[in-house]
Amino acid sequence: MRTTFAGVSVRAAVVGTATAVALGLTGTTPAQAAYPSSYSVKGIDTSRWNHSSAINWNSVAASGQKFVFHKASQSTGWVDPYFNQDFKASAAAGLMNSGYHFYAEGTGSAQADHFISTLRNAGYTGKAAGQLPPVIDLEHHNGACPAYATTTHISTFINKIKSSFGVTPIVYTSKWFVDDCLKGNGSVFSTTPLWQPRYQSGSNEPAALPGANRSWSFWQHSETGSVSGISGNVDLNVYRGTLTQLRAMANLGTTPAPAPLPSWPVLKYGATGVDVRALQYLLNARGYATTVDSSYGPATQSQVTAFQRANGLAADGITGPATWSKLIVTVQSGATGSAVKAVQTELNSKGYSLTVDGSFGPATLSAVKSFQSSKGLAVDGSVGPATWQTLIGS
Prior knowledge:
It is built from 13 helices and 13 strands. Helix 4 runs parallel beside helix 5 and helix 8 packs antiparallel against helix 11 (about 340-350). The chain has an 8-stranded mixed barrel with strand order 4-5-7-8-9-10-12-13. The chain has helices at about 15-25, 55-60, 85-90, 110-120, 150-165, 175-180, 245-250, 275-285, 300-310, 320-325, 340-350, 360-375, 385-394, and strands at about 1-5, 10, 30, 40-45, 65-75, 80, 95-100, 135, 170, 195, 205, 220-225, 235-240. Helices cover about 35% and strands about 15% of the residues. The longest helix is centred in the middle third of the chain and has 15 residues, at about 150-165. By secondary structure, the chain is an alpha/beta fold.
């Protein structure tokens, strides 16, 4: 995001791949799952920097964008001069929208009060049709952590937004910010939808936030995009769920928004248990013969390393998000083999009583659908990436 205070431009998000790596924003274990183009619900975010000429919001909507987050405020006194007009005009064009606050100077309480006042002055209620939850933007400011960027102050900010508008705010942040400013403790975000940046990174998705136990809902994947109706570069975003689910989040329907997916576990030498057993079954399914004994010993580590090397991953013998995402195999009714055994093993650990026979029959199908329903997933009986991640990560 491009941030502004007292007329000074600060590029607080990542500028290109080289800068991202240098700053550490990319994290060490990004999920390798899908390119941004594979997500169908697209949107943008804007601020005063997008106003070199007037924005034509009807053209923006016609270009296929579905949502927009506008910069509203910063610190305890600054308001983006275009927020009120953009908020109203984008809504009139049919875009789902909200405002975001750049967290800088001031206590969490004082900044929340300023943000709440700014939103209300623009007519935001959090309950009107088309209004998405408000956003707290947590980034480094002028190259440093904000003075009051602590879990206590951020929690106060989040709770004030909840009590004022009756909705849980979205949090825009990165693993770099959590590691550097919150000492690696992202637990304060365990109940908030996440909006995370990751630029020019192919299929690598944003790195998971330590302690948050959830995946991103919105992904800001470019700051150099082009959108009809806006002059110059535009920040581009995608939403993880369906358009129906986003409309529900914006008070336009009754379908609940998808629950954020749990984080993939990180397994390494010495680990034991159900997830190791599932890993060993999946290695066998991929052609890497491994004894299934629930123990991450030298043989399992060696096969993981071989799989990683063959698939262009960091060959460190550690099974993290990137390795899981490459290793899983989509299975459904009628399938047989070791990947089905992995599914049955994980389901049994969740309380289902299945015979681990590698046959995806009626009993396994019923258990999969029951599990999907209990976790708010699409109940299709197919064990694809989202179901795998929820099975193994929860």
